[in-house]
Amino acid sequence: MATIRATTLIDGGTYNNTERFQTLFDDLTEGDELVIPSGVYATGALTLKKHNVTITLEKGCRIQFIPDPELYPPVYTRWEGVNCWAMQPALLITDSSHIRLRGEGMLDGSGSWWWQQAVVKKKQSKPITDLEHSFAHLNPGFEEQASGGGGRKSQFLRPPLLQIHQSRNVHISGITLQNSPFWTLHPLYSKRVTIEDVTIFNPEDAPNTDGIDIDSCRDVVVRNCIVDVGDDGIAIKSGSGRDGVVTNQSTVGVVIEGCTVRSAHGGAVIGSETAAGVRDVLVQECIFDGTDRGIRIKTRRGRGGEITNIHYRSLTMKDNLCPIAVNMYYRPGSTDPDLFSLDPQPILDTTPSISNILIEECTAVGATSSAGFIVGLPEEPIRNVRIVRSSFGVSNENVTAIEESEMYDGLPAIRERGIRLRNVHLHLEDVKVLGVKEGFVVEEGVAFDS
User: Fold this and answer.
1) Phi then psi dihedrals of residue 396, to 5 deg
2) Exposure class string for 233-246: b at 16+ Cβ within 10 A, else e
3) Do you find a cis peptide bond into 272, omega within 30 degrees of 0?
């Protein structure tokens, strides 16, 4: 047991410290603390595979990941809900336990180059470069794998900034994560993870830069974090389509509390990768300020999974497009018209379900598209939604198109900006919808419980 200062690292942001960092990590023994002092340390991908160690990033410390795909070798992981080979996460904590990553320092993913590449690669229908062909060879059948819109068909599978993989009892606190190439903080197949007092920042236009993605994990707490990113803020997932059904690792037992999310596509989000199910989630006392949506659940036919026992309490939502969006017609990643049919389809093991949603004591003001969007499938309505003691206000200024309420396909256009309801069974108690003539836009398949 020792405290080790990382004096072998070379400051300045130009020298590649990958080998020096990795040696420091590999030499840690149980009980050790590694302290990274103030400075800018450039590096490639790093792996921590240890038990009972602490890494402290002192104030002024910035670990700067070099934007070069050759420095992120292939690892078998999950990328947008599908198990496959992808570029190694910038910092990978794997097969570890009792890990503490803390301090006032920063992990910086040097995302600008990656984002520019992503804009180009998303337009590709197939691999082009040698690197992309190498991933295509590792991932036979990738053409048929599900995608959430990140550009899987190009096989340019960007690295997340920090992934916690197959680990337990991991505590991340105090640090700042910014400029991620892809998803920012990705707990995957892990148990008992706590993330608190963490700040995450990616520019609003940075593609696929989710803040926190809790993926097939159990017993996760996210507390007092600030997330300002270019995609979903704090998201919960469990795999996509057939691959996720076969893997069958649900996400269970998540608490998100005291967090502030800005700019993101959604504040507290479930989906769209839901194949193994999500249950027992509590989101409370959070602020979703200027996010496209506040409460967001998104899935569709083919995504699979049971989403149940989800509780939202004491949320403040400001200047959203749409404060509540529960969407089983989620569009991105597919153009198959059968997935978006208004007619009942056969119920398969890849048909998602949503039930037992409680929204209480939540307030939204300044919504510019609509007050809400709750749309289930005709063959699988959303069941037992309870909204109580809550208020949702629609703005009359800076109005945006109703269609921007959610990313959907296949639904008819509407004119009213109240809460859109379709194929849902719900209970309302002391709910106010302000700023619109019609508080609820009731379509087919809606049942109100007394």
Assistant:
1) -105, 5
2) bbbbbbbbbbbbbe
3) yes
pLDDT grade for 415, boundaries at 50, 70 and 90: very high
Residue 247 has pLDDT above 90, yes or no: yes
Task: Give the pairing type, strands 3-5 and 39-43.
Answer: unpaired
Contact 354, 299 (CB under 8 A): yes
Query: Has this prediction a pTM greater than 0.85?
Result: yes
Distance CA 331, CA 326 (A): 13
Q: Is the dihedral of CA 102, 104, 110, 116 positive or negative?
A: positive
C-alpha–C-alpha distance, residues 31 and 108, integer Å: 27
- pLDDT tens digits for 60-112? 999 999 999 999 999 999 999 999 999 999 999 999 999 999 999 999 999 99
Closest CA to 439 of 377, 367, 379, 353: 367
Q: Where do runs of H (alpha helix) occur along 8-110?
A: 18-26
Question: Smallest Cα–Cα separation from 369: which of 419, 329, 328?
Answer: 419
Amino acid in position 389: R
Q: Round to whole Å and give the CA distance between 275 and 293.
A: 22
253: tokens are: 């037992």
What letter represents residue 379's amino acid? E
Beta-carbon count within 10 A of 23 CB: 11
- Which of 125-128's residues contact partners 24+ apart within 8 Å by CB, and which partners? 125/153, 125/154, 126/153, 126/154, 127/154, 127/155, 127/156, 128/154
The amino acid at 293: R
Tokens 């942001």 correspond to what residue? Answer: 13
DSSP type of residue 264: S
**What are the catalytic residues?**
231, 265
Chain-centroid distance of CA 255 in Å reads 15
What pLDDT is recorded for position 145?
86
pLDDT of 258 higher than 80: yes
How far apart (Å, rounded) are the C-alpha atoms in residues 28 and 393? 54
